[in-house]
Amino acid sequence: MKPNGIFKIAELAKVSIGTVDRALHARRGISEATRIKVLRIARKLNYSPHPAARTLSKGRANVRIGVCVPREIRLYYDQLRAGISDEARRVRSMGVELVHRPMPSLGVGEMKQLTALLRDQVNAIIVTPGNPEASSELIDQAEDKGIRVVCTTTDAPQSRRSSLVAVDPDLSGRLAAELMAKFVPPASKVAVVTGMLNTQEHRLKATGFAVGFASDCLGGEVVAVLEGHESEEESYEKTCDLLTRESNVRGIYVSTVNCLPVCRALRKLKLERRVALITTDVFPQMVPHLLQGTIRASIYQNPYLQGQTAMRILVDHLLNGTAIPANSWVSPTLVLKSNLRVFREVADAQPPVLSTAVPEPQAAILS
To answer: Are strands 163-166 and 189-194 parallel, antiparallel or unpaired?
Structure first.
């Protein structure tokens, strides 16, 4: 389009040149209705401001995206952050800046960090809500101010968040249940170890597993759902107590990344061959357990892709006016010992050898 494109947009939208500039560059100072009208006209006119020229003319970052994800469990959230950061690095020359406000762990300090991001005057937020009932109000406040919120991994369904990027938790639970039914005999008793049932993702995985297992395993029963609160010691102690109390448990599904304490419990009680264990995701410390059969299979959620997708959705919207999808589902993948090396988390790592001691040392290397 000719250089006077923004003048034509202003004429058709019946707004000033400054308003067009704010809408095209995702700046504050205009209503969301006006922004949408200007962007719609720009698309009809096939107008797209050159991102490099836009950044050079402004001389600083013009899009600030807040990131509020946990530090722990690092085995999972480091990958999520890597996906977000790598995508941000790709568009840094377009004036995109990340504002990190991490939580210590899922749900801890969530309200404080979200409140801080609203004060930081960000244009959008990526968040993993661990306490969705509490965080929904702040998410709605952000959306009311034109700050687009994308939830990833976990959801705040009561809120008016713009989008969710995640693996369908009900599907994950049902996939684990179908696998479990192939590993255990009919009428088996099994259990679930999860994080916190007030977290949407954890609750739906546990429910999906229970419903699926009852359907796929004739006479099968879920005898316990243990909340480990992402604590290794709590998960270990509760698993040991369950296996001692319920000696006929034949399978356990760990719906979060916190599977190592469950492996420890099975090895301590010498039940790793009797009890089928299905876990979630993959990281180097899991490899010996997969190779030796303590873990029969794992459901991979691709946290790197989740973070990358969440970031890309927001960048495309803020820089180009692309509509934000309500949901972006990442397909779960089955991890077995035969395909371990295709996953980025272990492809370049040398995982530790499994010791017979409890807890297992971290220094030995798998040959």
So the answer is: unpaired
